[in-house]
Amino acid sequence: MSVQVQQGKRGLTDPEMVKEILEAIPDQPLDTQRKMNYFVKPRGRRLTEYEVLTCYAQPTPDWIPGGLDWGDWTQKFHGGRPSWGNETTELHSTDWHKHRDPAKRWHAPYVKDKAEEWRYTDRFLLAYSSEGQVRSIDPIWRDEVLNDYLGAFCFNEYGLFNAHSSASRDCLGDTLRMSIAMIGFDKVDNAQMIQLERTFLAKLVPGFPESTDEPKREWTQGAIYKGARETVQDIWQATYDWNEILWSCHMVYDPLFGQFVRREFFQRLSSYYGDTLTPFFINQMQLYFSQTKGITSDMFFECLGDDAEFGDYNRRMMRAWTDKWLPRTVQALQDFMGIFTKIPTIPGVTSKDAVEAALERVFDDWKLDYADKVSYKFDKAAIIKTILQGLK
To answer: Which keywords has UniProt assigned to this entry (predicted)?
Structure first.
């Protein structure tokens, strides 16, 4: 039996079909919008390159507030959970695409900044090594504090970097995803800079260990970072809500514990022990902290906290999350006070009054930049008194 194939004309090859299509086309254009990305609402007067290249770059269904696509996802997780969904966070928004990075960073300028940072780091290290500046560092500070405790702080930053994995995956907007990924990468850059400093010292100082074995042992088993380790583990591995991950990390833990360790311990004390190397790297970390503060402030205060419909509810959730994570951060700081027994005492610098003044600065900054923005009340004096109980 042979197969008979119909040879009739179809589609645009059929004159009758072409005629019917032409008659159906209206006289006026179907779409009067001629501008690229006309559907994106700019933060300023006109769209920036950052907004054009970032906003709505990935599909977002219209049941996610601010989304423009329609339909459901063809691929789902086990149990039927969609690829993205509103149930991944307790916070609510009328537009998850509202967030903007104040620095307007996307992939290309971010990579350009990193390349520039490496070039001036290379020039600094060349000058530092050629002049033998390492000879001025106090041996105890170099061999114990920088090796063990700065090295252990590397794992703090690396753990927080990993916490951004699920947050960048589960968040509900393109600008959010770009910002979360970048502030996560900044954390792993902090970890890499710490190990870079240790590797650099190993090349200059005979016997200085390049291996991370001792810092890892201090982080996983030591008492000084015990509270920090447990807090980072819970942020990374025990928190489902991607907004809670970001809030606990960047609005509570890092502005308090991270700022005290970086700014008030390593950066402030380094020069007293003849160390001009560590402040170079800490200052770069502080730049990342400043950029992150701009990003997360826009996320939580400008977008979610001031949301026309859900702002009050969101701020109540932020205060509840602060109640949850502040005691853990205080415990981390109390444990860290034990580090002052490991270094030579300098009156007015490492003494109790100086440490208390440093804590005052950290909590004053946190109150102004974070707590006041969500009307969070706390007893600063009582908290600092609790932390200082760890100072032997």
So the answer is: Monooxygenase, Oxidoreductase
Reported as a single tens digit per residue, the pLDDT across 119-175 is 999 999 999 999 999 999 999 999 999 999 999 999 999 999 999 999 999 999 999
Amino acid at position 82, single letter: P
Write the Ramachandran bin of 132: left for phi over 0, alpha for psi from -120 to 50, otherwise beta. Answer: left
Q: Whole-angstrom Cα distance, residue 60 to residue 40?
A: 13
d(Cα 314, Cα 319) in Å, to the nearest integer? 9
The CA distances from residue 244 to 117, 257, 314, 317, 380, in Å, are 31, 17, 11, 9, 23
Secondary structure class of 53 (helix, strand, coil): helix
Q: Is residue 10 pLDDT above 90, yes or no?
A: no
Tell me which residue of 182, 188, 37 sits closest to 102, measured CA to CA: 182
pLDDT of residue 278: 97
Sign of the CA dihedral running 329, 331, 335, 340:
positive
| 117 Rama class: left (phi>0) / alpha (psi -120 to 50) / beta | alpha
Residue 235 tokens, joined: 């942020």
Q: For residues 144 and 340, what is the distance between their CA atoms, to the nearest angstrom? A: 12
Mean pLDDT of 375-383: 98
| CA pair distance 315, 264, nearest whole angstrom | 29
Residues 6+ apart with CB under 8 A from 231: 253, 257, 325, 328, 329, 331, 332
Strands (E), 54-185: none
**β-strand partners of 61:** 69
Residue 119 CB neighbours (<10 A): 10
Q: How many CA atoms lie within 13 A of 224 on its CB side?
A: 23
User: From CA 39, how far away is CA 33, in angstroms rounded?
Assistant: 9
Measured in Å, how far apart are the chain's first and last C-alpha atoms?
Answer: 98
H-state helical runs in 205-310: 213-221, 226-237, 242-247, 259, 268-270, 278-297
Q: In whole angstroms, what is the distance from residue 118 CA to residue 361 CA?
A: 31
Quote the CA–CA distance of 218 and 224 in Å, as a whole number.
Answer: 8
Q: How far apart are the C-alpha atoms of 197 and 146, rounded to whole Å?
A: 9
